[in-house]
Amino acid sequence: MYVRSDPDSGYAAGLPWVSRLLSTASLDRIGDHCHANQMLKSDLVHRMSLQNPHLRGKDVEKIIDTILDEIILAMARGDRVEIRGFGAFSVRQREAHSGRNPRTGAEVAVRKKLAPHFKAGKEIRSRLNSNPAALR
């Protein structure tokens, strides 16, 4: 797994420990701590702490915060962030257009803006599609 740091340096050094921490297969083995149909950041911290007893909960939380902050900073610079097997984060530009106020029905001008985009990796797609119970 690699994280693209900036366009000039190509890919940063490999971070295999991040791959291990974020592995959904290993997280599935750690008891059910999630809320109904969602996983909060605190749930992820709890599961990763159980999976890595040598790390304190605050350290795991700091690791997760650092990963998310780096992804956000790279996207703010306009960089694409690719995590092999997981997916790619990028920024898309939404053009200006006219919309409607849902309450009044009045036409409103919507300015152009940047929006985050995520494309799931091959491994995530294959894991999702290999679980027939996930298809409701």
Explain this structure.
- The protein is α+β, with helices and mostly antiparallel strands.
- It has one domain (4-134): IHF-like DNA-binding proteins (HU Protein, Chain A, Irregular).
- The protein has helices spanning 16-22, 24-28, 41-51, 57-76, 122-129, and strands at residues 4-6, 10-11, 81-83, 87-94, 97-100, 107-110, 113-120.
- The strands form three sheets. It has a three-stranded antiparallel sheet with strand order 3-4-7. A two-stranded antiparallel ribbon has the order 1-2. A two-stranded antiparallel sheet has the order 5-6.
- Helix 3 (41-51) crosses helix 4.
- The longest helix has 20 residues, at 57-76.
- It is extended and about 55 Å long.
- Residues 1-17 and 24-31 have low confidence and may be disordered.
Characteristic key phrases:
3-stranded antiparallel β-sheet, disordered N terminus, 136 residues, alpha+beta
- Please indicate the percent range of residues in DSSP E strands (runs of 2 or more): 15-25%
| Structural shape | extended
What is the name of the CATH class? Few Secondary Structures
Q: Look at the structure and name the CATH superfamily.
A: IHF-like DNA-binding proteins
Secondary structure tally: strands = 7
Indicate the radius of gyration in whole angstroms.
19 Å
Query: How many domains, in number, for the residues?
Result: 1
**How is the largest sheet built, in terms of strand order?**
3-4-7
Assembly state of the chains shown: single chain
User: Structural class, judged by helices and strands?
Assistant: alpha+beta
Q: Number of helical runs?
A: 5
CATH topology: HU Protein, Chain A
Average pLDDT over all residues:
80
